Amino acid sequence: MARITRKELKSDKFALEVEHTVNFFEDHRQEIVRYGGIALVAVVLIIGYIIYSGHQHAQREEALARLKATRAAYAELQKVAKESWADAGVVADLRSLIAQDFRLSQDQVQPRLS
User: Is residue 8 part of a domain?
Assistant: First the structure.
């Protein structure tokens, strides 16, 4: 069985590993800063894309809900137009407004490529 010397007892493995780590970071500081910056830019870009994508999704969901409501309004207008008391001029104006709103909503849900 080997004897442990006084010097070996005084050396702390944790302190030695910390010293090696600090030395490593001091020796490779330029590379660490470079690759850390690249990693930071990548994380910022990913987070930005996630936020942008979520915003786009919310806008499209809102436009889709509006499109569905416009279609429902047009269906109700068709029922009202068949009634005897319905004014044809008012119904025609409402039809044109609903059609315009429908086109705008449709463009928001599915943008046309120019």
Answer: no
- Taking only the tens of pLDDT, the chain with its 114 residues reads 567 666 665 667 888 888 899 999 999 999 999 999 999 999 999 999 999 999 888 888 888 888 888 888 888 888 888 888 888 888 888 888 888 887 877 776 665 544
Phi, psi dihedrals of residue 111, rounded to the nearest 5°: -60, 140
DSSP 8-class letter at 110: S
d(CA 97, CA 74): 10
This prediction has a pTM of 0.52
Nearest partner of 109 among 38, 58, 51, judged by Cα: 58
Q: How many domains does the chain have?
A: 1
Domain hosting 45: range is 14-109
Instruction: Name residue 39's amino acid.
Output: A
Residue whose token pair is 């690249």: 38
